[in-house]
Amino acid sequence: MPSVASLEAPEDRMRFFIDGRWATPHGARSHQALEAATGDVLARGALADEQDVDAAVLAARNALDHGVWGRTTAPERAAVMRRMADALEKRAESTAVLVSRENGMPIGLSHMLNGGAPAGLLRMYADLVENLELEEIRPSQAGSTIVRREPVGVVGAITPWNFPQALAMFKIAPALAAGCTVVLKPSPETALDSYVFADAALEAGLPDGVLNIVLGDRDAGAALVSHPLVDKIAFTGSTEAGRAIGAECGRLIRRCTLELGGKSAAVFLDDGVLDTFLAGLDGACFLNNSQTCTTQARILVARSRYDEVVDALAQYTSDMVLGNPLDPSVTCGPMASRNQLDRVLGYIDMARNSDARLVSGGGRPEGLEQGWFVQPTVFADVDNNDRLAREEVFGPVMAVIPFNDDEDAIRIANDSDYGLGGSVWSADEDRALAVARRVRTGTIGLNYYTLDLGSPFGGMKDSGIGRELGPEGLNAYLEYKSVYASDKYLSA
Ligand code: NAD
């Protein structure tokens, strides 16, 4: 691991990326990004106000309506997207380190998600749009109808801090492929890394105004949501913010995709294989220090295996290695911010004062007083009606709940306001699949949980509306148009 002292300080990002240039902010507000593992200042990022957001949206509108982008073919867009992927890959190492410092993401994961994944997504959507029929001619009673798929327009993309690069690219890549233009408003906690997209866009020759980036707080987000020249909002974040954004989009009849919170269940059936479960816990429950929307923080266990699984979970979490996320041996980094740490500790205190039984962790780790560290924590005998089982903690705090049989497990798994992730653990994959089919959730794994970028991802119930990733993620940035024509195009 590079010693933290030997790392270069990241550069301040005191300008926005608007219309292909570095723009001076209208106001004077800025955010101080802190290193999650130490609490030290990393760098500053300027915060946008309503006028900065307006300038970014005008640039995006102009690029779409009057610039070259609105007239590009899919292969032309694919070519520039591939160049941007190459430019991102060149910066992958430094971006991975930067994100780990910003939000505490373990460096191995950060390499995958902040270097490889955004470039991979650009290439995946470049391939998809090149092979998509954007115009289809159908015979009609009056002659023919040309069914076109056109870009939805100017997209406002609003992202959280937990997977800042990947979640932004879930939106940017399909939007660019479809021919949309984008204004990205990232989260202040990860103030610095999103401008790597601007550096890559400049190097790739993405036309001016196609991608604009303005860091800002929730007021800037709200200004983007209600801006009259925006056609679609693509949001990832909390269910609370999603409700406000969805309500505003409804009022404005504005298209929106909402990827929100979760309280998913990992269901360990009575024939589950313990070693498989323990090997899969990182992906299902502890990914990114459990600051992951798909964290399966309700662990439902068959009564006949209950004590064995609770003991194994206690051992697993006690063995997790806490520390600076830049150290590759660390399996649990810090929380992303002081606020986030306080929130997680608050849930731990609440559960300590309930009937739940603390079996491991339960507070801050000794020797890691700097930074926002919390012990991976397991509470057993949690009631599914307890707040710990119903609300999203967004940290490494697991609630273990016993069940009687498969029916009971399905009932408890579905007894949640959310429906985003999940997993079923059984020696019999067909049996696990039968359970998985009945859980109301957008994604669910059989004996593992790993996102598939080629398949739709999103939530049921309060976990959101719409899907990202896969070919379905491209549909979300295209609108149908039917052109009624003569029959002359049928034979062409
Ligand atoms: P958050 O909702 O507080 O903020 C997310 C983004 O929205 C930030 O950029 C913020 O500035 C902006 N924002 C907040 N309120 C807004 C408003 N009223 N109008 C416009 N913009 C607004 O969430 P967070 O704390 O940054 O992220 C954690 C949350 O994100 C968790 O609930 C987590 O489950 C969720 N999340 C969901 C997914 C998913 O794909 N479903 C993925 C990652 C994170």
TrEMBL record:
<dbReference type="InterPro" id="IPR016161">
    <property type="entry name" value="Ald_DH/histidinol_DH"/>
</dbReference>
<dbReference type="InterPro" id="IPR016162">
    <property type="entry name" value="Ald_DH_N"/>
</dbReference>
<protein>
    <submittedName>
        <fullName>Aldehyde dehydrogenase</fullName>
    </submittedName>
</protein>
<comment type="similarity">
    <text>Belongs to the aldehyde dehydrogenase family.</text>
</comment>
<keyword id="KW-0560">Oxidoreductase</keyword>
<feature type="domain" description="Aldehyde dehydrogenase">
    <location>
        <begin position="24"/>
        <end position="483"/>
    </location>
</feature>
<dbReference type="InterPro" id="IPR029510">
    <property type="entry name" value="Ald_DH_CS_GLU"/>
</dbReference>
<dbReference type="InterPro" id="IPR016163">
    <property type="entry name" value="Ald_DH_C"/>
</dbReference>
<feature type="active site">
    <location>
        <position position="259"/>
    </location>
</feature>
<dbReference type="InterPro" id="IPR015590">
    <property type="entry name" value="Aldehyde_DH_dom"/>
</dbReference>
<dbReference type="Pfam" id="PF00171">
    <property type="entry name" value="Aldedh"/>
</dbReference>
